[in-house]
Amino acid sequence: MDRSFGCGLEAALAVIGGKWKLLILYHLGPGPRRFGELRRLVGGVSEKVLIQQLREMERDGLVERRDYQTVPPKVEYALTEFGRTLAVAAAPLCEWGSAHMARIEAATSLAEA
User: Fold this and answer.
1) Contact by Cβ (8 Å): 77, 41
2) Does residue 77 contact residue 33 with C-beta atoms inside 8 Å?
3) Cα–Cα distance between 59 and 81 in angstroms, integer?
4) Is the Cβ–Cβ distance between 66 and 78 less than 8 Å?
5) DSSP per residue over 12-65, as a string?
6) Strands of 75-79's sheet, edge to edge?
7) In this structure, are residues 20 and 49 in contact, taking their beta carbons and an 8 Å threshold?
8) How far apart are CA 106 and CA 104, in angstroms?
9) β-strand partners of 55
10) pLDDT 10s digits, 45-59
11) What is the CATH number of domain 8-112?
12) pLDDT digits (tens, 9 = 90+) for 58-75
């Protein structure tokens, strides 16, 4: 399926769309992670959704999956070079979130009250 995008942001959102992908990207930044470790780090995500998001990220070339073919099973996920370029691009967003975390938490609390 050929797809053309109207702008770069549309193309980026096509790759990072999904609630958990940026968090997965963030936690894979330091290096490869096993599935169970990722599931613990990306709190709140179900196993099914994490698998789905990782498969989509693998399909899009952001993540590579390495199956060691051992018993018990050992599978690791790591960022590809393409995935690392996205992680670098997402870093300022993470910094912005950290700088404004208290304000965002306060606004979220007021909205929920």
Assistant:
1) no
2) yes
3) 14
4) yes
5) HHHHH-SSSHHHHHHHHTTS-EEHHHHHHHSTT--HHHHHHHHHHHHHTTSEEE
6) 33-34, 75-79, 63-67
7) yes
8) 5
9) none
10) 999 999 999 999 999
11) 1.10.10.10
12) 999 999 999 999 998 899
Phi, psi (5° rounding) for residue 33? -135, 145
Residue of 30, 31, 11 whose CA lies nearest to 76: 31
Determine the length of the chain: 113
pLDDT at 111 over 80: no
| pLDDT confidence tier of residue 1, bands split at 50, 70 and 90 | low
Q: Which two tokens stand for residue 50?
A: 């994490």
Rounded distance between C-alpha atoms, residue 26 and residue 9, angstroms: 19
Strands 33-34 and 63-67: unpaired
